[in-house]
Amino acid sequence: MARMKFLSDAERCIECNGCVTACKQEHEIPWGVNRRRVVTLNDGVPGEKSISVACMHCSDAPCMAVCPVDCFYKTSEGVVLHDKDLCIGCGYCFYACPFGAPQFPQDGAFGLRGKMDKCTFCAGGPEIDHSPAEFRKYGRNRLAEGKLPACAEMCSTKALLGGDADVIADIYRNRVLKRGKGSEIWGWGTAYGKPAKQPGAKS
Amino acid sequence: MPGERVFMRGVACLCALQFMLAAPALAGAADGDSKEQAQRQATQPLNNAPVWRDVRGGDVNRYQTTQVRGVETNVLVQSEGEIWRQIRNGPITVYGGWLLIAICAIIAGIYYGKGAIKLHEKPSGRMVERFNSFERIAHWTMGISFCVLGVTGLIILFGRYLVIPVLGYTVFSWLAILSKNVHNFVAPVFVVSLLVFIVIYVKDNLPEKGDLAWLAKGWRMFAGEHMPSGRFNAGEKVWFWLGVVALCLVVSATGLILLFPNFEQGRLLMQQANVIHAIAGVLVIGFSLGHIYMGTIGVEGAYENMRIGYTDEAWAREHHEYWYNEVMAGKGVAGGSAPSTAKAVSVKEGWKL
Fold first, then answer.
1. DSSP string of A105-138?
2. Best CA proximity match to B116, nearest among B299, B318, B316, B330
3. CB-based contact (8 Å) between B346 and chain A?
């Protein structure tokens, strides 16, 4: 099985927010929840660069490690998913995540957190593939349809790549060689630098 | 293999690039950072550490922006979460858990080894008021809410390791949701009752003359020998100042930070609050186990004091001699009223003892 990863090429991103919009539209995400966002460095000064960021589906996912109800699991493709039926909305995954991926729809007064929502790599959730319950809780399951994540598919400059890690790493390597700069694969060290936890294992 | 050759060529070119490439891939954010980055490039080509440090501090960098609104959405990487994970999943869970188990074992050892501390004299049948109803309401509001918070907090911290293997994921999730919400809604009750409790109990917990002597020899009560003390002995005072005042105030303050995420506090603050909350919480729970033991099965007659507010004259003389003497001298000390058998009768009828 392929190991799925995201790769954001800071040399190519033009901050169009197409990935953010594609994600929201594809999964019909409620107001106030942003599974993906584009962050611009050096905004308005020389050397401006933009990077699209969402859940990176880490090898040793911190969210998975700190969850009090152990609601996270990892698919055989390395995608980190969670079970919203188990989630208690404590916010610990948000504390632990390096990328600010976990989102909490407000559920009541005083900022009471609802069930956590995050990028699923367009792989749905624990429900039956393409079921209405899966769509309602996690959005569309494009991987089960044989498609790649909507954000990466939508990217007009192909700055955002999502898919088999070996394939996208090859694409990126070729780009770096051709343009002769921009060799940082942003976030990969943080997300994939540690040895993987057993895929699919409930630890 | 052509693929392999391409890969090897890529590696070779990347190595070459490291030496040729002078310009950083990402220029520094603010001017100071740009300069630092330029210097870094001169000494260590391709080392972009200054840029990546900046990426982690987006909240203080006005040149780092995003369209998405929310807390710290312009931060690309926050590495503090990893430290928080190591502390919480490591020492707090491991040492905290064993500490509580050890305290339970020590208490069980005392109870089954030495037994409860019994009253030596026969009860006189004459009752002295020890806690008035306001003091008892304050104590029990705080005590009951403390127990609820303690149990629900322990479920959230240790449930994954102790309860999931027994009850399974679905039932534990239900229990954890209940725990989280009960913890959140009982917390304000605890905070208010804690403040009231401290105010009305502080006077009799101030240090007194006999306290050091008590601390030196107080442990002998397990051997049946009592040191004289005021209304509260030095052990109770230590519990008041360390457990109730220090630890409970720390737990309350950090808990309030975690309770209201709508004030847009950052993740670092909440991680720090969570670590302090958990450490202080485990310590005060361990402390409270000792207090609960001494207040219920550990000392004969202690529970009735706080339950009905009156204590037998013999108990008062044996456990709190200075206080008893002041009561008998009619000094109008807290609690204290003239001993009477009428009280004992009415109390016994009232509470159906």
1. -B-SSTT-B-S-B---TTB--SSPTT-HHHHHHH
2. B299
3. no
A42·B28 Cβ contact <8 A: yes
Question: Would an 8 Å CB–CB cutoff place A43 in contact with chain B?
Answer: yes
For residue A89, give the CATH number of its domain.
3.30.70.20
A62 has a chain B CB within 8 A of its CB: yes
Q: Residue type for B79, please?
A: S
ipTM of the complex, rounded to two decimals: 0.90
* Nearest-CA distance B108 → chain A (Å): 29
Q: Note whether A11 contacts B25, CB cutoff 8 Å.
A: yes
| Separation between Cα atoms, residue A114 and residue B332, nearest integer Å | 54
Pairing state of beta strands A4-8 and A160-164?
antiparallel
CA distances, A168 to each of A14, A159, B49, B227 (Å): 19, 11, 25, 77
Q: How many CB atoms lie within 10 A of CB B17?
A: 16
Contact of A16 with chain B, judged by CB distance below 8 Å, is answered with: no
At residue B1, the pLDDT reads: 39
Residues 6+ apart with CB under 8 A from B7: A173
| B34 interaction partners in chain A (CB closer than 8 Å) | 47
> Which candidate, A80, A44, A88, places its Cα nearest to that of A63?
A80
Q: Is residue A91 part of a domain?
A: yes
Residues of chain A contacting residue B77, judged by C-beta atoms under 8 Å apart: 98-99, 187, 190
User: Is A144 a member of any domain?
Assistant: yes
Amino acid identity of residue B277, one-letter, is H
d(CA B287, CA A1) in angstroms, rounded, equals 52
Which residues, numbered 120 to 159 in chain A, qualify as contacts with chain B under a Cβ-Cβ cut-off of 8 Å?
none
Write the single-letter amino acid at A1: M
A201 domain-assigned:
no
DSSP string spanning B275-332? HHHHHHHHHHHHHHHHHHHIIIIIBTTHHHHHHHSEEEHHHHHHH-HHHHHHHHTT--
**Residue partners of A146: CB distance under 8 A and separation at least 6:** none
Range of the domain at A187: 4-192
B128-178 per-position pLDDT tens digit: 889 999 999 999 999 999 999 999 999 999 999 999 999 999 999 999 999
> For chain A, how many structural domains are there in total?
1
- Enumerate helices (H) and strands (E) in chain A, giving the number of each: 7, 6
Strands (E), chain B: 65-66, 127-129, 310-312
B34 touches chain A (CB under 8 A): yes
- When scoring B60, B77, B260, B267 by the number of chain A Cβ atoms within 10 A, the one with the most, hence best to mutate, is B77
Distance from CA of A69 to the nearest CA of B (A): 6
Give pLDDT < 50 ranges for chain B.
Answer: 1-30, 350-353
Domains in chain B, ordered, with CATH? 2-60 (no CATH), 81-132+202-351 (1.20.950.20)
Using a cut of 0.80, tell me whether the model's pTM lies above it: yes
Q: Are B26 and B50 in contact (CB under 8 A)?
A: no
Residue A200 lies inside a defined structural domain of this protein: no
- Kindly state whether B93 is in contact with chain A, defined as any CB-CB distance less than 8 angstroms: no
